Amino acid sequence: MSKIPTRLTADQFAVHVEPYLSKAKRGFVSQIPLYKIFNYVLYILHTGCQWRQLPIDPDALHPEQREISWDAIYYHFRKWSRDGSLKQVWQSSVQTIRPLLDLSELNLDGTHTLAKKGGEAVAYQGRKKAKTSNILPVMDKQGYVVATTEIVAGNHNDAFELKSNIQQACKDMKQLGLAIKGAYFNADSAFDTREARKTCFNYGLIPNMPENKRNRQRAKPGPKRLFNALVYKHRFCAERTFAWVDKFKRVLIRFERNATYFLGFNCLAFAMLNLRNVLK
Questions:
Q1: How confident is the model at residue 29 (pLDDT cuts 50, 70, 90)?
Q2: Axis crossing angle, helix 194-202 with helix 162-175, rounded to the nearest 10
Q3: Chain-centre distance for alpha carbon 24
């Protein structure tokens, strides 16, 4: 049975999630506990069902009515996505599992998601023969997600704005207090660019990417560039992580037109994946 949680108890929610969610100070206040609303959002993430089809529990005082409407749950999800609450939940999960992380190797890879309804950061991807979005998370040696990029349109190659993406990922990891200096930075040949390697060296990382032969027409004289084939084989953990993330059907196919909401679902999936051994 999978260890990745799809539902939290009230105590688990209070420790790992509630401190990082924004709450209403005035105006609309939910009549049911926030942990139940969060679990309804997890249900959407896990099953991929429509918001209107949420199996909402009946009201305790009025059994003929639901305890909350689906659009109230959707309101909370949108608010938490826009104000960065779900991103903070994921980043706090990185802090929680810090003793479990193996930062001797960092693995970068991208995954394209079919976007059925179009929207922001969506474009046609020839290889997929469909409109897609792309996201590039960074994983440690064991597959925990420690950094990620924003949502990128699918028509761009993996090296699109790679320098700024690596810089932002490294800054985020340093802000979380992760010691990444001296780590191998594994990525496939699509990420093999001069700027990417230079950026890795600037942050104390060891770029470990097979040479992209399309970058030059003839062999360059001099010593061979640094590449450790044995360490590169460990990059398979990225594919394993993507397989785990696919458990959450809402990020397997994108239905959110707003890129911020789709990123919110991804951050929530990364958080549950990171906490799989804490909440088992």
A1: low
A2: 20
A3: 26
